[in-house]
Amino acid sequence: MRIIRTKDYDDMSRKAANIIASQIVLKPDCVLGLATGSTPIGTYKNLVAAYENGDLDFSAVKSVNLDEYRGLPRENDQSYFYFMHDNLFKHVNIDLANTHLPDGTEPDSDKACTEYEAIIDSVGGQDLQLLGLGHNGHIGFNEPNDEFDKLTHCVDLQESTIEANKRFFASVDDVPKQAYTMGIGTIMKAKKILVVVSGADKAQIVKDAFFGPVTPRVPASILQFHPDVTVVADEAALSLVK
User: Fold this and answer.
1) Sign of the C-alpha dihedral, residues 148, 185, 225, 18?
2) How much is the pTM?
3) Catalytic residue among 65, 67, 149, 153
4) Whether residue 136 lies in the annotated active site
């Protein structure tokens, strides 16, 4: 695991975007595993700027997203489909037919998850998987558990995750209680993994996930076993580790 210490959120975002940009330049038809949430927004802004400057071409890129809320229509401004279009897809020349997210509108969870796992396999898996890090150590929506979930599955969101997401909704009652997410096994099949982390409120989970024991109670700790992981984190997030 390689850890890149950055000054602040903006510095973290620039460096993370540079890593993704390098992947696109080296392999123009690469498969990017993409993440949502507040932390990657700055990374996407930097990628859009690079495209607008003529430095990046997304025309052959394929993407697979980590997760999607179950039950939210795509036009809902809190769906991850909406998020990806608003923050990245509509600003670059990516072919929307090559962008994929779990179908949150599919009520049959087994069908939705099986079909999404097949899509990931059909594009050859992720060349680079972007991840954020939840306060409880979740990656995607893989919550603390007694075992590591292997494949794409439907998950009941923990109260801490619902609480963290309620700022995006009118009230906590509007926050979806379930999501479809890539499993830990699906994430670990990515050739490269890039984790972005920012803020002092993430310092303890950074220490637990990347410097503590590997346990499904801290899902991100499994990344210690991946052969090619880069963590880009600001000084505040790394404040509890040397």
Assistant:
1) negative
2) 0.95
3) 67
4) yes
pLDDT digits (tens, 9 = 90+) for 87-106: 999 999 999 999 999 999 99
Q: What is the mean pLDDT of residues 36-40?
A: 94
* Region 41-45 average pLDDT: 98
Domain spans of the chain, in order of start: 2-234
Domain 2-234 indexed as CATH 3.40.50.1360 = yes
- Single out the residue of 215, 226, 228 nearest to residue 148, CA to CA: 215
Count CB-CB contacts under 10 A for residue 213.
9
Burial class of 7 by CB neighbour count within 10 A (0 to 12, 13 to 18, 19+): exposed
Nearest alpha-carbon partner for 68 in 109, 39, 31: 109
- 188: number of CA atoms within 13 Å, CB side? 17
Q: Which amino acid is at 109?
A: S
Task: Determine how β-strand 62-65 pairs with β-strand 31-34.
Answer: parallel
Q: What is the pLDDT of residue 241?
A: 94
Sequence-ordered list of residues with C-beta below 8 angstroms from that of 32, at least 6 positions apart, any chain: 20, 23, 24, 61, 62, 63, 64, 126, 127, 128, 129, 130
68, 103, 127, 143: which is the annotated catalytic residue? 143
